[in-house]
């Protein structure tokens, strides 16, 4: 009977308490929805979800934000637009989350972003790097990772940072992703350095051999090869380049991890001329990245951390910063305003500070490259470093 | 009639195509080295019976026995392995293989593919020997019938079921087939011969059964058939 | 340059040829067009991976175990999934093979959806230089293994009684039953055999392509192109078609445009179907599908 009364009383309080009318915000909780591909072939990118969740758990352990603890609801979208739509509906309608920190595949983000805009649910991107996500501008949507335009630009700048670079070749998938990256790189090369791409090649997805491409590259002898390719095909290119003795440096895109490429190529010698885009301050496998890894494995002991595990940690820290700034009377509008006020936010994990403004929600405007030097992953801002 | 010496017997076999009865309790028997002919008009159930015996059609009731062993419900290859070999109306040859390969494959599972066995068939069908390297598909209808019979002989059958061997053949070949049938009979082969051509059948067979609407209507020695040919033909074929 | 392209084209072409060979053997012996054959190939590669890298068997043993497992899987699929519907329309069986593909891919995704697995090369030696041509030992193994399979099947079908029987059983199943051949049993055996071929192909190719659940889908299209090019159902045609497509991809990719490589297979299918519907080696009879 006593218990019954207690439940009734609790129910009454919940119904009658108007102070926390904002969705997902309770007296001592803030609910955040995460969606990402946790299974399926894109799940290596979905690892970002665990990094973000670890950051939220960590802030809870340190007392939370204005007395509130973050409650994470995690959904699997399998990198599938339809599944993402239903995951997001569940998060907003059923779980009643305050904000969403999700989306690793651009297609899933595109599928849900208009709906979230209508509902004015703050939508912080977890790992989707397409520059198209923040174009056109949406008030509720933030991208706290380097997007594809930033990556393509950085690849060109890195190549040009080597004294005497005159010929840059580009190899790309012919899908929308590959073409967009290629266009941005080509335009930046022209605009900033007055150069044209010297040779443009195609490499299709699921290809098992890159002999014609490598032979053409070997003939053309460019100073750099920009590879707008997915991980498997990047590894194929690196492997075949080594097979045919090509020593031209190959620059990989954001989605391509150095360690994963090494595992796929299976030959350290082949990795000597491979560089890939890198978003973080500490190098992979370094002592400096260890605390970040430990933060993840503390909450997810089975997690095998690699490049993508850290991808959303900077964004999660920015979210926490904005939640703090928004104050105890938390509303979605206040949170969005606080996000827009974030300037030069040093997350410690990303190598470029996060900056948002009222009309620009692409938060990370730079990056670096990473390559093996003496067998160790080394972060390089410019060629000569 | 004395029936307990039947070497091959069909006992009260019922077969249905969907709901329609194709055979409604057919019983017949063949003694060793006997040639029995199964007569009847189109649609009387003759081919259905052979295909049921051979395992291509399921029977709803009844039994089929060879030397007392039931082969009821066995798969076609198992029936052949038991020694019951059909020479079908469609001949079912391997069209892209040579005459020789067709014969050799006849003995693939049962029988004897030695050169002697092959020569034995060639002796009966000199035409096949002439055409031994030709693809089966290039043979004339009569030659194909010879090849089908030859292939069946290669399995060393206990009993051969022949489904209208003269059907669709030129008169010259019909005579040839009749000659071969008689030769096989003289060798002591056991045969169940389904024929439309009553004259051909009664000149070779020892006994006959007449099937109509899935039931045996008449049976007896071929002497009886010869004696009452016109009456029986009128009664059961018209 | 040309020689290198030819060499690489032969390696790629051998892979296509062997997949096309497996599909042709099954088509010839059972009349089934196997849309799930790419998944069989994938399953073979994963089986070798599991036996050699997870279980830790020596490579040769792992290879034999993988072939054995695939043979059993192929036979089980025939017995359980195909035989009950084999008398239905062709399209029903074809759809079943599509379902098999999804089934196997789904199982692989369940266990290895997260990662792309690397299969170490069968022999780990530095690349070999023949004049200006670079070939890895794996390349040579692929060519040798594929050609050995091709020759073995040619001899089997053309020379052995069993091979002739298998073709006979496929062309005239009733006739085969009438000489005592267990036709359903034959079909089951052939499903096992072609699944075994897929395992061999998977083993040879996996170190080159790396392992992921969808690795077979890409090859399936190439194999179809090879079969169409050479004449559907023609063993020699499938092999020749595979080699020619491999060569053409490399040469066109280098001398015309790298963008051509991947659409080449589709172009072949379209052009051949319109201009040369029976393929380069096909005869009239090969078109009865």
From TrEMBL, chain A:
Name of one Pfam family that matches: Peripla_BP_6
Ranges where the Leucine-binding protein domain occurs: 29-372
SUPFAM superfamilies attached to this UniProt entry: Periplasmic binding protein-like I (SSF53822)
Signal peptide, first to last residue: 1-21
Keywords, comma-separated and alphabetical: Signal
Family the UniProt entry places it in: Belongs to the leucine-binding protein family.
Name recorded for this polypeptide: ABC transporter substrate-binding protein
From TrEMBL, chain B:
Pfam families noted in UniProt: ABC_tran (PF00005)
Classification via InterPro entries: AAA+_ATPase, ABC_transporter-like_ATP-bd, ABC_transporter-like_CS, BCAA_Transport_ATP-bd_LivF, P-loop_NTPase
Gene3D superfamilies: P-loop containing nucleotide triphosphate hydrolases
Keywords assigned by UniProt, alphabetized: Amino-acid transport, ATP-binding, Nucleotide-binding, Transport
Highest taxon, organism lineage: Bacteria
SUPFAM superfamilies from the UniProt entry: P-loop containing nucleoside triphosphate hydrolases
Occurrences of domain ABC transporter (ranges): 8-238
MF terms (GO), sorted A to Z: ATP binding
The family this protein is said to belong to: Belongs to the ABC transporter superfamily.
Protein name: ABC transporter ATP-binding protein
Originating species: Shinella pollutisoli
Record lineage: Bacteria, Pseudomonadati, Pseudomonadota, Alphaproteobacteria, Hyphomicrobiales
From TrEMBL, chain C:
Protein topology in the membrane: Multi-pass membrane protein
Family: Belongs to the binding-protein-dependent transport system permease family. LivHM subfamily.
Transmembrane segments: 6-27, 34-51, 57-77, 89-112, 132-158, 189-212, 224-248, 254-276
High-level lineage: Bacteria, Pseudomonadati, Pseudomonadota, Alphaproteobacteria, Hyphomicrobiales
InterPro entries, alphabetized: ABC_transp_permease, BCAA_transport_permease
Pfam family, one: BPD_transp_2
Main location: membrane
Compartments, record wording: Cell membrane
Record PANTHER family: ABC TRANSPORTER PERMEASE PROTEIN, BRANCHED-CHAIN AMINO ACID TRANSPORT SYSTEM PERMEASE PROTEIN LIVH
Keywords: Amino-acid transport, Cell membrane, Membrane, Transmembrane, Transmembrane helix, Transport
Protein name, UniProt field: Branched-chain amino acid ABC transporter permease
């Amino acid at each position: 009977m006593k218990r019954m009364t207690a439940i009734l009383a609790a129910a009454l309080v919940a119904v009658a308490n108007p102070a926390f009318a904002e969705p997902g915000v309770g007296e001592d909780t803030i609910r955040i929805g995460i969606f990402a591909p946790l299974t399926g072939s894109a799940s290596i990118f979905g690892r970002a979800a665990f990094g973000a969740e670890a950051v939220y758990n960590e802030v809870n352990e340190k007392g939370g934000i204005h007395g509130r603890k973050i409650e994470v609801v995690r959904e699997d979208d399998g990198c599938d637009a339809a599944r993402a739509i239903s995951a997001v509906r569940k998060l907003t309608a059923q779980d009643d989350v305050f904000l969403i920190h999700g989306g690793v595949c651009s297609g899933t983000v595109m599928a849900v972003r208009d709906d979230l805009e209508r509902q004015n649910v703050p939508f912080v991107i977890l790992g989707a790097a397409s520059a198209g996500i923040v174009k056109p501008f949406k008030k509720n949507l933030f991208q706290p990772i380097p997007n594809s335009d930033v990556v393509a630009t950085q690849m060109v700048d890195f190549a040009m940072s080597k004294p005497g670079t005159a010929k840059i070749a580009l190899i790309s998938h012919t899908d929308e992703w590959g073409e967009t990256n290629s266009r941005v790189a080509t335009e930046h090369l022209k605009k900033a350095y007055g150069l044209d791409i010297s040779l443009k090649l195609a490499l299709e997805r699921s290809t098992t051999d890159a002999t014609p491409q490598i032979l053409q590259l070997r003939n053309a002898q460019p100073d750099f090869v920009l590879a707008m390719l997915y991980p498997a095909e990047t590894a194929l290119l690196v492997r075949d380049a080594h097979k045919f003795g090509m020593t031209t440096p190959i620059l990989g895109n954001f989605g391509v991890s150095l360690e994963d490429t090494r595992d796929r190529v299976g030959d350290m010698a082949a990795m000597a001329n491979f560089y890939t885009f890198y978003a973080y301050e500490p190098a992979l496998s370094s002592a400096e990245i260890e605390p970040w890894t430990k933060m993840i494995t503390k909450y997810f002991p089975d997690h095998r951390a690699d490049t993508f595990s850290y991808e959303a940690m900077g964004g999660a820290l920015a979210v926490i910063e904005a939640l703090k700034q928004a104050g105890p009377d938390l509303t979605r509008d206040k949170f969005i305003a606080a996000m827009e006020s974030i300037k030069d936010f040093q997350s410690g994990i990303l190598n470029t500070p996060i900056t948002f403004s009222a009309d620009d929600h692409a938060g990370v405007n730079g990056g670096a490259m990473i390559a093996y030097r003496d067998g160790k992953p080394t972060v390089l801002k410019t060629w000569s470093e | 009639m004395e029936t307990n010496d039947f070497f091959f017997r069909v006992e009260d076999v019922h077969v249905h195509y969907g709901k329609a009865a194709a055979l409604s309790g057919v019983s017949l028997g063949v003694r060793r080295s006997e040639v029995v002919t199964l007569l009847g008009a189109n649609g009387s159930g003759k081919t259905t019976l052979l295909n049921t015996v051979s395992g291509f059609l399921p029977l709803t009731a009844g039994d089929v026995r060879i030397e007392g062993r039931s082969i009821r419900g066995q798969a076609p290859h198992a029936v052949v392995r038991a020694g019951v070999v059909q020479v079908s109306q469609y001949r079912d040859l391997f069209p892209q293989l040579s005459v020789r390969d067709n014969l050799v494959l006849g003995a693939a599972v049962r029988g004897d593919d030695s050169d002697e066995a092959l020569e034995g068939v060639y002796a009966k069908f000199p035409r096949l020997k002439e055409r031994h390297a030709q693809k089966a598909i290039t043979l004339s209808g009569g030659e194909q019938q010879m090849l089908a019979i030859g292939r069946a002989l290669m399995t060393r059958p206990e009993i051969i079921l022949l489904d209208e061997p003269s059907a669709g053949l030129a008169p010259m070949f019909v005579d040839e087939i009749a000659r071969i049938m008689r030769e096989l009979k003289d060798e002591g082969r056991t045969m169940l011969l389904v024929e439309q051509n009553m004259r051909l059948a009664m000149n070779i067979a020892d006994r006959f059964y007449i099937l109509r609407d899935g039931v045996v209507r008449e049976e007896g020695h071929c002497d009886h058939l010869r004696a009452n040919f016109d009456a029986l033909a009128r009664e059961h074929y018209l | 340059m040309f020689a290198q392209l030819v060499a690489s084209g032969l390696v790629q072409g051998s892979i296509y040829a062997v997949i096309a060979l497996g599909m042709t053997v099954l088509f010839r012996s059972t009349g089934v067009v196997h849309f799930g054959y790419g998944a069989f190939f994938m399953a073979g590669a994963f089986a070798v991976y599991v036996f050699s890298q997870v279980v830790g068997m020596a490579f040769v043993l792992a290879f034999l175990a993988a072939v054995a497992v695939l043979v059993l899987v192929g036979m089980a699929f025939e017995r359980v999934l195909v035989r009950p519907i084999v008398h239905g329309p062709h399209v029903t069986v074809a759809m079943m093979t599509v379902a098999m593909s999804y089934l196997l891919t789904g199982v692989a995704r369940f266990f290895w959806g997260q990662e792309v697995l690397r299969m170490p090369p069968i022999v780990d030696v530095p690349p070999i230089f023949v004049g200006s041509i670079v070939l890895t030992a794996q390349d040579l193994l692929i060519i040798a293994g594929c050609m050995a399979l091709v020759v073995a099947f040619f001899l089997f079908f053309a020379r052995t009684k069993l091979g002739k029987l298998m073709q006979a059983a496929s062309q005239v199943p009733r006739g085969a039953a009438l000489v005592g051949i267990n036709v359903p049993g034959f079909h089951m055996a052939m499903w096992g055999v072609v699944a075994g071929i897929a395992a061999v192909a998977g083993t040879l190719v996996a170190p080159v392509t790396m392992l992921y659940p969808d690795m077979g889908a890409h090859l399936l299209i190439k194999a179809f192109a090879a079969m169409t090019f050479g004449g559907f159902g023609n063993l020699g045609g499938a092999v020749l078609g595979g080699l020619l497509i491999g060569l053409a991809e490399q040469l066109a990719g280098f001398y015309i445009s790298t963008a051509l490589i991947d659409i080449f297979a589709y172009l072949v299918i379209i052009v051949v179907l319109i201009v040369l519907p029976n393929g380069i080696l096909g005869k009239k009879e090969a078109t009865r599908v």
